[in-house]
Design goal:
Layout (H helix, E strand, L loop, with lengths): L19 H6 L17 H23 L5 H29 L18 E7 H4 L11 E9 L15 E2 L5 E2 L9 H6 L6 E4 H8 L9 E7 L2 E5 L29 H18 L8 E2 L14 E2 L2 E11 L2 E9 L1 E4 L5 E11 L10 H4 L4 H11 L1 H14 L3 E9 L8 E9 L1 H7 L4 H16 L4 E7 L5 E7 L7 H19 L1
Parallel strand pairs: 4-9, 5-7, 5-11, 13-14
Antiparallel strand pairs: 1-17, 2-8, 2-10, 3-15, 6-7, 6-16, 10-11, 12-13, 14-15, 16-17
Length: 497
Amino acid sequence: MNKYTSQFGGGASQYAYYHDEDESSFQLVDTTKVQKPIYQRGRTKFNQNKLRREREKRAALDQANMQVLTKTQKSRERDRQRQLKKWQKQFGRAMQQRNQKTQIKNRDASVTVKETWEVVEEMDFPRLCKLSLPNIGDPVDIGTYGSLEYYDKQYDRVTTKNEKRLKRINRIFHKVTTTDDPVIRQLAKSHGNVFATDAILATLMCCTRSIYSWDIVVQKVSNKLFFDKRDDSEFHLLTVSETATEPPQDEGNSINSPKNLALEATFINHNFSQQVLKMNEERYKFDQTNPFHQKDEDGEVASVGYKYRKWNLGNDIQLVARCEHDAVMYGPNGELQFINVKSLNEWDSRFCGGVDWRSRLDNQRGAVLATELKNNSCKLAKWTISALLAGSENIKFGYVSRVHQRDSVKHVLLGTQQFKPLEFASQINLSMDNAWGILRCVIDICRKLNDGKYLIMKDPNKPFIRIYSIPDNTFESSESEDDDEEDESDKSDEGEK
């Protein structure tokens, strides 16, 4: 018991009060106000003043918005709101389309590669782009065949305001491959050691611009090379928006699927190239008649002239090719000019650069052509090379559009444009030195191979070209095998002689 025990019941410990421990833990607390440093003084007042000024500014702005506007101010405000909505609509749609972008699907190869085929060579585009073969001399004309109609210059005056309806012209177009050409079969006995058509050469020379898969058959007999297209291939179809940022990816029976667009473009090109000519008038005739026209054929043959030309590529390479003209016309001084006639077609401006031809073709033709150069770089380059190989003085381009976006049958011509092939080649950044270099590289590789049949194919999804060794009877029917065996024996006999 200590000295503080309560006198009221010393034994009641629950009421006892002990003070010893409290004294030991007791301490003094300083409650004086802490002095702030000079740089912190007045900060609260400054923040309050800043907030007050912002409140006053917002109040003044609200008051200004509530003021009565004059007619001029109202008109400006309406224009501003209209422009704002236009921007929101325009960029909002672009953002939506950007968000809805689908990944480009893997494309199918032009022909199914079999397990028995062996890859003998692979060439990538970056290396091919660096090749160059300058100073190729002018070709020698071996023979000319066919007949040409004259271009009707009234089509040069067509504009979007007086558009012309595209007609359906039922004429026969011959797409004969190299070894089926009777003239080349005859020339192979005495001229050259590499044989092809201008379309095949243009495909090889522009291969670095191609996106879609394609294939070319190569037959090596003794020291001679024959470049062919397959009979059932889509080699002659014109691609549409092949090099566009977002190429068409619709599938099935859609009119905007790549295959249906290619069929539509080929159909338009055939009809346009004949409609702009002076039909049923006297034709310009070459030395020989059309070698592919049979007497029992029903229908009129399209206007076409064939030139068989020979180039010396060096290293004992003599190239013989069949080239084509589409028409003839008179120049400004009355001279006769051979021309090629091609058509560019608009299928849906929303999906091919957003440039509407009907509103821009007359005033901004350069913008329309620039969009086409971007979306169809490979097709335009092949047309240009074909014109240069044939020696055409001019290329005529027609701008053809659908009457309705959802109808792929009816079309109208909105205008035409003319270029000199060499000037147009420089405009589209097409180097003939590089084109000849690529062709010479492919020929040199094929000449080193053993006799037999080979397939050159563009990879459907990568910038590569592969050369496959394939069996001799590949892509041949039982009937054509017998004919080809006889032809090969004749060719080998000529080689031995």
